[in-house]
Amino acid sequence: MQKLFIFLTFFAVKILFAQEAEADYIFKNVNIITMKDDKVLQNKTIVIKNGKIIEVSDKTNFKSHKTVNAKGKYLMPSLADAHVHLPENNEELEKVMKLNLINGITKIRSMRGTWDDVNRRTKYIYEKDYYPRLYLSPPPIHRSHEFSLAQLENYVKASKDYGFDFIKVLSIKNQSLLKQLDSLCKKHDVKIAGHFPENSDGKGFSDELVFSTNYNSFEHLGGLIGNPECYENRIKKIKQHNVFVCPTMQWYAVGYGQYGINEMLNQRGMEYIPKEIKNDWAEKSKNYREKLGKEGFEKERNEYASEMQERLKVTKRLNDEGVKLLLSPDSSSKFIVPGFGMLEEMKLYKKTNISNLDILKSATTNFAFLFNGNYGTIEMGKNADFILLSQNPLQNLNALENIEAVFYNKIYLDKKQLNEIAKSVLPK
Predict the structure, then answer these.
(1) Longest Cα pair distance anywhere in the chain, in angstroms?
(2) How far is CA 421 from the centre of its chain?
(3) What does the alpha-carbon distance between residue 227 and residue 17 come to, in Å, rounded to a whole number?
(4) Which residue from 270, 299, 300, 323 has the fewest beta carbons nearer than 10 Å?
(5) Residue 270 DSSP label
(6) pLDDT in tens, 164-212
């Protein structure tokens, strides 16, 4: 009887070990960019089970029917676009998410939402698991809004109860309302993000008030551009209070006429924009420039070029101070293609001499810090949420032009599948 017990115990342990040794996916011979530093781990093996990275090693004892030989490829965390305005039309939303996905973007922060966005997020989670995860805000606060205290509490509580991730402030009526909003956000544990608050007359709110609130990110370098008297103190406060900053410089570069019309029409990704829309963008831009006249347009563009230099300088200063930058081109503007605009935004960061590592962090690890997500670096225990590239983006950011594969939410999309998704959103 004792011998039988020993045999059964041995057999059970053997079965358990066999179960543990079976992985969902194994990626072999891959070069890993962990995003913890600028080192590349050469020819490593990554083992994935239940959507988690369970091993990073030189060689593994795990087995899997889904083993990918990624020799010569570079593996890094997938990207996050931190400032998106979601289309109202569901068909257009699906297209936007696919355009992001084929560019290695698996997380999107919506910065001007609707109450129905929670239902839309649920729909896409269950319909196609590979769609990027949506981080949502409810309809934003605007200075035209009048709230009683009870109405404001209902708004904040609903934001929390419905599962929104933060509240977006476009603008706000006065300091008293900001105090009330902040008090309720702290009560219900809701973060605030958005524009640096200003009064309707253009004067800023008290910095003491602003930096005591639940704001955890500012958009568009608000409160810093054109504010030399407040600049140094605000940089200090942003760093001290661990506030994230999303510069969205590509939106300004396009809107400020820093590119030629043909140059914008020939950008990567423009083939996904219908011809009639591209023609409309070009015609409106041409008419505006002709209305100003050659001399008038050159004068305006040069004035804006000076502001763009200030934006680049401020972005560099923030990074040098250790402020966590977020990355987005803000593709709500004409001539900015969702997904494809991320690399254009990176190129503007590059003009400031920010390192490739820090630029990539702004679209990976920093976003993970913003939402306390279990992603953003490649290490054991983290979600398997990464992209494969044929070249090293730490050496050249243009490596991101060629996404070889995406692994996200337990799904592996190889080059062929990504190409099929890309074809599905080409204009008919």
Answers:
(1) 100
(2) 20
(3) 63
(4) 299
(5) G
(6) 999 999 999 999 999 999 999 999 999 999 999 986 555 668 999 999 9
